[in-house]
Design the sequence.
């Protein structure tokens, strides 16, 4: 720090002592005193940042698809399943944070309960949306960048650089890291007989770790696994995450179509897309109250943007510089499983249209939208279950009544 910018006797105090003063102010909760004088604040603000640890918590057991920020008194990033948007807390609206100046970013990820498969799906959504918020973005989301000019910083980061990132995977005796997909495969219904994805062999920890391979520009990366030491199964993926995190080339930069970076990033994106489309398909069938709520969340936030995103996650993003698309799960699926997922996507759109809550307004006779939770307080049941069939038949009756009412309104208008 430039001594000329310091005031009074503070200029004579060694940096170590000034830092102790700042810490004492924090402990005594008198930071407001520092803010009363702009010069004092300007001097101590960098010290605050240098000692600030930005805490992020991923909890798959959360009742909503959200990410907790700031530890003990959290605010939340809301990233509803079925939506491409991220709602930031009021304290971050219109602000960018100098992440590069912070001491560290701590990301704690709690284990999903393998007996409740919806937790893995929600947790994976939380992780990927967090990274979408934190990491640099392509100016054209569906066109891989050819130059750095086509990449911009994260929506709330002042630049590309990140501090030391510590990634900790936590578990408890009841919620330990396991193989949710393997358990789901044992009980998959007959409708899933043509779905033979390799995801059933992957562990929850591996699935949750995959998206972090997108991190770049970090000062350092640390991964703490549940047992405190790398397991042989995770050595390769941990190595890739640690290696790529400190790389100084943005993720997805494909200026050299034959370069190893572009090809590696495309493969990493394919793996992430693969998990997205497989988990999205599995959500149709898995049982449980959390799965019901997650299916309701997906339908409530359903949009053309979401359908387009899932289409690109399946087929990849078109890149004129490469013979093959960038990313996409298609290359990792056998023909039968690919066809099964494509058919499910088409059928799901019909189901959404049928389940969409409508009611007739007594005053006008016109159809008006109704809150999803009002019509489906317990969520959307698993596809093919008795509860789903009952809900679907009720939805068909409501839709038929709505269409009949609309026909009467149109007929009355014609007579007039």
Sequence:
């Amino acid at each position: 720090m430039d001594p000329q910018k310091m005031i009074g006797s503070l200029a004579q105090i060694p940096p170590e002592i000034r830092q102790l003063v700042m810490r004492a102010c924090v402990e005594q909760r008198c930071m407001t005193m520092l803010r009363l004088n702009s010069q004092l604040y300007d001097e101590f603000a960098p010290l605050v940042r240098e000692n600030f640890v930005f805490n992020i918590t991923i909890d798959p057991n959360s009742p909503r698809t959200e990410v907790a920020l700031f530890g003990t008194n959290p605010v939340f990033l809301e990233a509803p399943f079925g939506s491409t948007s991220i709602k930031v807390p009021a304290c971050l609206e219109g602000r960018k944070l100098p992440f590069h100046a912070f001491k560290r970013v701590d990301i704690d990820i709690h284990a999903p309960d393998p007996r409740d498969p919806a937790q893995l799906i929600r947790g994976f959504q939380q992780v990927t949306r967090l990274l979408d918020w934190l990491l640099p973005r392509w100016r054209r989301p569906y066109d891989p960048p050819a130059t750095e000019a086509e990449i911009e910083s994260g929506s709330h980061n002042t630049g590309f650089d990140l501090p030391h990132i510590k990634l900790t995977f936590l578990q408890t005796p009841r919620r330990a890291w396991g193989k949710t997909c393997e358990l789901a495969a044992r009980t998959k219904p007959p409708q899933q007989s043509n779905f033979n994805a390799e995801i059933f062999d992957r562990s929850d920890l591996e699935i949750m770790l995959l998206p972090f391979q997108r991190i770049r520009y970090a000062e350092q990366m640390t991964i703490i696994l549940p047992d405190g030491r790398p397991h042989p199964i995770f050595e390769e993926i941990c190595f890739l995450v640690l290696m790529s995190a400190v790389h100084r080339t943005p993720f997805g930069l494909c200026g050299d179509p034959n370069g190893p970076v572009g090809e590696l990033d495309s493969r990493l994106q394919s793996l992430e897309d693969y998990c997205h489309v497989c988990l999205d398909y599995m959500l149709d069938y898995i049982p449980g109250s959390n799965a019901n709520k997650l299916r309701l969340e997906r339908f409530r936030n359903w949009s053309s943007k979401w359908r387009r995103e899932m289409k690109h996650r399946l087929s990849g993003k078109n890149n004129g510089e490469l013979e093959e698309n960038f990313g996409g799960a298609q290359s990792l699926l056998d023909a039968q499983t690919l066809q099964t997922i494509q058919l499910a996507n088409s059928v799901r759109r019909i189901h959404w249209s049928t389940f969409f809550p409508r009611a007739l307004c007594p005053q006008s006779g016109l159809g008006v939208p109704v809150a999803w939770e009002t019509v489906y307080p317990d969520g959307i049941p698993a596809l093919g279950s008795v509860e789903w069939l009952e809900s679907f038949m009720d939805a068909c009756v409501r839709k038929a009544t709505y269409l009949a009412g609309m026909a009467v309104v149109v007929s009355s208008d014609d007579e007039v």
